[in-house]
């Protein structure tokens, strides 16, 4: 099937305005008759639930954490982009749009990205009004910093805690609606199934993580804001509870999963110290504003960094990409770091690291200035590594961080299943094959505050509210299936723990479907993953019972889903015989630079689930570029 | 991605086990073997849990998510100190190099009337959400707000507001306070918003509503122990409590309030 993204016609800059005119509205008095379920309370979900509640809809929001304030958006450090052009450095909506499409290696839908750039400015205004304490200068104006992949300063920030502050803003707006009675928050709930009636999304099935009860919730529309899936690599910068479960369960009910192979490996994370490690910690990309990346020129050089003279250091990003230098985009910076280490010039334990050095900036600006900009990051680095980043260079290494792929959606953020909307990291829409820094926060809030409130009305206005409720037999069937799955997991009583399986899957994924992928490695992964999955269902040991808090059981279903989804990721990577953005196929390169194949792969790959152990069906959405020219992406 | 094997520290843990909210609960003893100083405290508990599962026993339940000190989910009293023996840090960021081979470690949940235990080390902190719902926000609607630079804010106030806004809502302040007071938490929100022109408009209503909600949830009052400040992982200062009290005094008419020092623990 050829998919249509339904981008409105007309000139790029007028598409969104025109579309807003064309869409149907729901009368204010009728809004409360519609029930909307919002799953996930990060930036996208929190903003959507708050705004939809404020508009008068009857909203129920769900999160697996104990509070709506804790979703992993909170961990974003560096900042949020907007095309305000406050620094007068030639920024514009078009430039932000262009940088984002180019940063994504020309694999995103033009119209969606342009809309994102347009509403980026409203987001800053909104957050300021909510009391987000963005950094200011002495005159009281908002301050900006630079981020990778851009030559203008358009990133707004709140120390190194921008994600936290934006999320708290959304959470507070949400709390206001809870008090007003328009939103009900169900914390410690995890969605385990999407209920589909006559081809339309009509509800969800959850596990209450405290009582263990399987609960049904009905709604006239379901909005998934459930984040990304890079925990498929086991070690990543994501929170421990991040999983593909909600999205994957929706995919198993017919929603198409698009571009799963587009995963972002972030260049600046704290290197791993041992096998005990449960997660990797990111050091904000903003550090590359003032830190210089280098590796020793000599192979196997294990002198302390201070002992290596200036002319024996390779500032490889400045050398390879003089015009962007240390602010090269993430995919490129990560590959360059891996290159140094593969060449036996890495530093630290196992040679899996490069330096991020602040000595020059400290000399130029003074330690105080660096402390003001990144104090909390240096503190975090010291707590984890026991090393002082002011005195010696930090050691960094790439780690899985973000997923550009996600459920397929059209311009309205609606999946191919009517009534199922997908926002933020959970969808595939705007970042193409690589996301630029400070753009995830922008997308989450754009989708939640300024897109879904308009587009969902166009769907709701066409249906009768409350026509299907949890009295429909599909709800019971779904709950029964989930219960049976829980019983099955608990009954296996095998020999290996859930996290042993997760680690093994992570190794397969990282070694074969990680930063460098090849035909052979992907085929290997496609053999190993199903075998591991089979073993899982025979030999996993899930302790505890059904009717109680059971964290082992929670992990078990998340890992079970990764064991199915990982295969799709590898299959998508095998299908895409080109290199673009975060997807690097060693066969398709020009001296280490990614080689795209626009003639054959300028499309979004949307996969339709056909059953576990069955080949999924590929649907293509051709990407048309009417306003910018497809070019080789150069940062040299 | 490979690394060294586990290290060689051996520790004795005394961990609070409680089946559910109704169970009385008790400390149970476990051995943590082969612990590396580079592990985080929660990774050490992971090792213990893997061992328990292998032995067919129920692993220890504890809240955690981001494991990088920002989500506020992790919540453990470690040797009687909220988030353990390191400063400006959460339990997930605490590393085992802070302990010595042979140490005994006591691990308990947050203890406060307003935070009922759900299982083992996991508590219900819904009371903090309800305090925010009472008025921990500005009433800005989505859309229809002025340009971000139309409101000038002095750097000093923006910075001070950010100091208060750094709160992660973990509840360590409540857990460390002998009165189980939530004053640091509430004052951080009152100050974060009250220090900004956007939030100042509603400052009086806000502080009244939030203090009322705090009392209704069964939190105690502040009697200047400053344990909260000492254990706050984000270094939030108790001076915000004085600031909140001043803001409360300023509200006119000032509702008469009964002082309940010492209650709620
Ligand atoms: S797990 Fe998030 S702060 Fe500790």
Task: Describe the 3D structure.
The complex is a heterodimer of chains A (636) and B (265). In chain A, the strands form 6 sheets. In chain A, strands 5-2-1-9-17 form a 5-stranded parallel sheet. Chain A has a 5-stranded antiparallel sheet with strand order 11-15-14-12-13. Chain A is 37% helix and 15% strand. The model of chain A has no long low-confidence stretch (mean pLDDT 96). Chain A is globular. In chain A, a hairpin with a 2-residue loop joins strand 6 and strand 7. Chain A is built from 17 helices and 21 strands. The longest helix of chain A has 25 residues, at 551-575. Chain A has helices spanning 15-22, 28-31, 43-55, 93-103, 110-130, 162-180, 245-252, 316-320, 330-342, 359-365, 367-385, 440-460, 473-492, 498-513, 519-539, 551-575, 598-601, and strands at residues 35-39, 58-62, 80-81, 155-156, 183-186, 189-197, 200-208, 214-218, 221-224, 257-258, 263-269, 292-296, 313-314, 354-357, 394-403, 406-407, 420-422, 589-590, 593-594, 603-608, 617-622. Among the domains of chain A are: 267-399, Flavocytochrome C3, Chain A, domain 1, CATH 3.90.700.10; 481-609, Fumarate reductase/succinate dehydrogenase flavoprotein-like, C-terminal domain (Methane Monooxygenase Hydroxylase, Chain G, domain 1). Chain A is of the alpha+beta class and 636 residues long. Helix content of chain B is 33%, strand content 12%. Chain B has 2 domains: 9-119, Ubiquitin-like (UB roll); 125-250, Alpha-helical ferredoxin (Fumarate Reductase Iron-sulfur Protein, Chain B, domain 2, Orthogonal Bundle), CATH 1.10.1060. In chain B, a hairpin with a 2-residue loop joins strand 3 and strand 4 (81-82). Chain B has helices at 41-54, 126-135, 155-165, 172-176, 183-194, 197-200, 203-216, 227-231, 239-250; strands spanning 9-17, 26-35, 77-78, 81-82, 104-108, 117-119, 122-123. With 265 residues, chain B is an alpha+beta fold. In chain B, helix 3 (155-165) packs antiparallel against helix 5 and helix 5 (183-194) crosses helix 9 (239-250). Chain B is built from 9 helices and 7 strands, in the order ββαβββββαααααααα. The interface between A and B is large, with 89 and 85 residues. Bound molecules: FE2/S2 (inorganic) cluster. FE2/S2 (inorganic) cluster is lined by residues 64-67, 69-74, 90, 92 of chain B.
């Amino acid at each position: 099937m050829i998919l249509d993204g339904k981008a409105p016609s007309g000139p790029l800059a007028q598409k969104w305005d025109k579309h807003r005119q064309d869409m149907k509205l729901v009368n204010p008095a009728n809004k409360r008759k519609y029930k909307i379920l919002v799953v996930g309370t990060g930036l996208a979900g929190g903003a959507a639930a708050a705004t939809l509640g404020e508009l008068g809809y009857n909203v129920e929001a769900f999160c697996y954490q104990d509070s709506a304030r804790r979703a992993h958006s909170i961990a974003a450090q560096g900042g949020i982009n907007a095309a305000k052009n406050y620094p007068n450095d030639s920024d514009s909506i078009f430039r932000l749009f262009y940088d984002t499409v180019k940063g994504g290696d020309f694999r995103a839908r033009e119209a969606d990205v342009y809309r994102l750039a347009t509403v980026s400015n409203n987001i800053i205004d909104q957050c300021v009004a909510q009391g987000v304490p963005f950094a200011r200068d002495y005159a009281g104006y908002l301050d900006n910093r630079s981020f990778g992949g851009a030559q203008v300063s358009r990133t707004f920030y709140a120390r190194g805690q921008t994600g936290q502050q934006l999320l708290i803003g959304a959470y507070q707006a949400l709390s206001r609606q809870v008090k007003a009675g328009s939103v009900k928050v169900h914390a410690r709930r995890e969605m385990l199934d999407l209920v589909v009636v006559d081809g339309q999304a009509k509800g969800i099935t959850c596990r209450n993580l405290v009582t263990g009860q399987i609960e049904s919730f009905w709604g006239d529309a379901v909005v998934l804001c459930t984040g990304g899936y890079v925990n498929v690599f086991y070690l990543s910068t994501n929170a421990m509870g991040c999983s593909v479960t909600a999205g994957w369960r929706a995919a198993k009910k017919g929603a198409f999963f698009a571009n799963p192979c587009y995963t972002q490996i972030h260049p600046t994370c704290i290197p791993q110290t041992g096998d005990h490690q449960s997660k990797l910690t990111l050091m904000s990309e903003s550090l590359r504003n003032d830190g210089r990346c280098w590796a020793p020129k000599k192979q196997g050089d294990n002198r302390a960094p201070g002992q290596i003279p200036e002319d024996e250091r390779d500032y490889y990003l400045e050398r390879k990409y003089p015009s962007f230098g240390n602010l090269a985009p993430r995919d490129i910076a990560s590959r360059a770091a891996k290159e140094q280490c593969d060449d036996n010039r890495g530093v630290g334990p196992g040679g899996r690291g490069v330096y991020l050095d602040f000595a020059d900036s400290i000399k130029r600006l003074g330690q105080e200035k660096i402390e003001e900009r990144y104090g909390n990051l240096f503190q975090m680095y010291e707590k984890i590594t026991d090393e002082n980043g002011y005195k010696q260079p930090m050691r960094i290494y790439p780690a899985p961080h973000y997923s550009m792929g996600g459920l397929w959606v059209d311009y309205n953020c609606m999946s191919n299943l009517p009534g199922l909307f997908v926002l933020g990291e959970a969808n595939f829409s705007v970042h193409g094959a690589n996301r630029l820094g400070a753009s995830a926060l922008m997308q989450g809030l754009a989708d939640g505050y300024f897109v879904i409130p308009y587009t969902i009305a166009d769907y709701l206005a066409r249906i009768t509210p409350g026509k299907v409720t949890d009295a429909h037999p599909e709800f019971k069937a779904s709950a029964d299936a989930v219960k049976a799955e829980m019983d099955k997991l608990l009954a296996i009583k095998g020999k290996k723990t859930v996290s042993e399986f997760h680690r093994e899957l992570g190794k397969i994924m990282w070694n074969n479907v990680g930063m460098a992928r090849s035909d052979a490695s992907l085929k290997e992964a496609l053999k190993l993953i199903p075998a591991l999955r089979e073993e899982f269902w025979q030999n996993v040991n899930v302790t505890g019972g059904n009717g109680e808090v059971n964290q082992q059981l929670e992990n078990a279903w998340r890992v079970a889903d990764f064991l199915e989804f990982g295969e799709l990721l590898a299959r998508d990577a095998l299908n895409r015989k080109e290199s673009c953005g975060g997807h690097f196929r060693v066969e398709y390169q020009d001296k280490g630079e990614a080689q795209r194949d626009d003639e054959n792969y300028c499309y979004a790959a949307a996969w339709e689930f056909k059953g576990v152990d069955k080949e999924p069906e590929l649907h293509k959405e051709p990407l048309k570029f009417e306003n910018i020219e497809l070019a080789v992406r150069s940062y040299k | 991605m490979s690394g060294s094997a586990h290290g060689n520290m051996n520790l004795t843990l005394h961990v609070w086990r409680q089946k559910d909210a109704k169970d009385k609960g008790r400390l149970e003893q476990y051995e943590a073997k082969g612990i590396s100083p580079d592990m985080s405290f929660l990774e050490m508990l992971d090792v213990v849990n893997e061992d328990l599962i292998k032995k067919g026993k129920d692993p220890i339940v504890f809240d955690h998510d981001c494991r990088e000190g920002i989500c506020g989910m992790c919540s453990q009293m470690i040797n009687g100190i909220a988030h353990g023996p390191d400063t400006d840090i959460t339990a997930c960021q605490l590393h085992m190099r802070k302990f010595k081979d042979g140490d005994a470690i006591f691990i308990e949940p947050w203890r406060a009337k307003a935070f009922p235990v759900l299982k083992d080390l996991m508590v219900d902190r819904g009371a903090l959400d309800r305090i925010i719902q009472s008025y921990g926000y500005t009433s800005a609607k989505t859309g229809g707000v002025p340009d971000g630079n139309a409101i000038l804010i002095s750097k000093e106030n923006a910075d001070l507001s950010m100091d208060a806004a750094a709160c992660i809502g973990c509840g360590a302040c409540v857990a460390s306070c002998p009165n189980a007071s939530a004053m640091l938490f509430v004052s951080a929100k009152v100050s974060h918003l009250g220090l900004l022109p956007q939030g100042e408009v509603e400052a009086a209503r806000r502080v009244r509503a939030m203090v009322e909600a705090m009392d209704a949830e069964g939190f105690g009052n502040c009697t200047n122990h400053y344990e909260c400040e000492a254990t706050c992982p984000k270094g939030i200062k108790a001076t915000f409590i004085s600031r909140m009290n001043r803001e409360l005094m300023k509200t006119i008419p000032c509702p008469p309030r009964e002082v309940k020092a010492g209650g709620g623990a």
